[in-house]
Description:
The chain is mostly helical. Helix content is 62%, strand content 0%. The radius of gyration is 25 Å and the shape is elongated.
Amino acid sequence: MLVDAFNTLVLARRTRHVFRIARLYYQLTWKPFAAVARNIQSPLRRESFLGVYGPVSLLLLIALWGIGLVLAFGLLQWSAGMKSPQFTPSFKHDLYLSSRALVTLNDGDPENGASQFLSVCEGGLGLAFLGLVVGYLPVLYQSFAKREMAISLLDARAGSPPSAGGLLISTAFEAEGVIQQLEKWEAWMAQLLENQISFPMLGYFRSQHSNQAWLTALVAIVDYATVIGITSKGSLRLQADLTAAMGRHVLSDVVVIFGLEQSCEKDESSRLCGRLEQLRRALGQRPEMFDVRTLSAALLNERAAGYEPQAAALSTYFLMSLPAAVPDRVVRNDWRVGVSDRDESPFAVSDPFKKSP
Length: 357
């Protein structure tokens, strides 16, 4: 329990060759939770239900660590033969005094030296554990807020849900503006990767809006950078390729973090090829920057094969749909919709995964 809590709360990097209780905990709890969500027909209720899992699972994980420490020290006290003037020796009383020692409320001081030493150690660990939890939660939610702020910016630029075609339509006329936009999204991807490595449970925290998700936004940006990298030249092409490479890096690493390598299945055709003509029309509005003649189905499939299998595996696991290549009929701009019209969204990122009634 101590090693797992240390790796999760203190060690901000992925560890190997260590049995991770937190990893097993999320594997055992997420699958049945997601199965229940698939049976909820209402998009609003389903997204609300899925949105509860991240915060609640984190609180339950902290409680699991605490219960594990109480049980572990209770077993140590039982093996040490704890003698207390207030209780008769029994494992039940050992557990009770262990729980009080962890929260530093122990009033049944043991008489034997080994038990006294264990009580002091448990009290100190209890204070340290509480301090770690108090300091950990603000950092976690600060990372979540930074991630969501960038995703919300996509609403006015790429629609809800976002898409590469939506971004192309709103793309600035100047190449320098597109380069700056790609640089910002590359930095956001790098930050997203660091957050997922340091705080893997952030992947289960869903966006506050039903038409937005971190995975949908990430793949939309990679699609956007991939298309620009194929059809542009010079500095714009270089920056687009760098942004797309960072996106592929993020998807590949997140797949490893959640152990989904075996779920990555290659497909002969990508999502982008089905809307090739629409993408060409969107690019044709900027002939000074993009050469639509270089955009072919074969090249799109080749580029997409480097990240679509990983994106599809994460999409199925998190119940987050992948973005369309261009805006379709269910796409809308949330900032243009009144509060009274948001009771039932026409689209939700988990809709493709619901079970038929």
